[in-house]
Design brief:
The chain is mainly alpha-helical and 180 residues long. It contains 11 helices and 3 strands; from the N terminus they run E-H-H-E-E-H-H-H-H-H-H-H-H-H. It has a 3-stranded antiparallel beta sheet with strand order 1-3-2. The chain is elongated, with a radius of gyration of 19 Å.
Length: 180
Amino acid sequence: RINAPMCAAVTACADAAERLQRLLHDTPMLIAAELQGWYRMHPLVRDFLLARFERLPTPTQQALHQRACDWFADHRHFPEAAAHALAAGAEALASTYAVQSLWTLRAQGKFAEAQAWLQRIPPAMIAGDTHLRLLAAWADALGERNGEAFRVALGILDDPATEPATRFIAALVAASATGY
């Protein structure tokens, strides 16, 4: 999905809105998405543009991903912000946005989407972040890996340095894993 403000922020193109409108009305490359002001690219166009993007120098790609990350984070689209932060090589920032997006997805009952996002995060990043470990455990608690979720939650509960709010969430994860 793209929109004019996001395109303008990433590309520094002042006439992004006019260009998108022209593409929408004059070509089959764009279609209006379900949200007003958002568009979807035709899959062939998207694949073509992604192939061109991949030929750009890595620093240029990372800079564009960072701009997209910043825009999405500023507009509270945390799953997209996290994905672009990972692509930009900003793992700590990606972890922060991943936690925010995964809690949102989990609260909305979008377990499959949360699980898919967790699979995109490098395992070392999850292992090094208590909140990400809890999110992964919560997703596992409601599936076939509830035993592993219970062990993760207990490990966090047994750590005397765990903050009370995190301890509460770990207890919820352990209870969910036990109940499931």
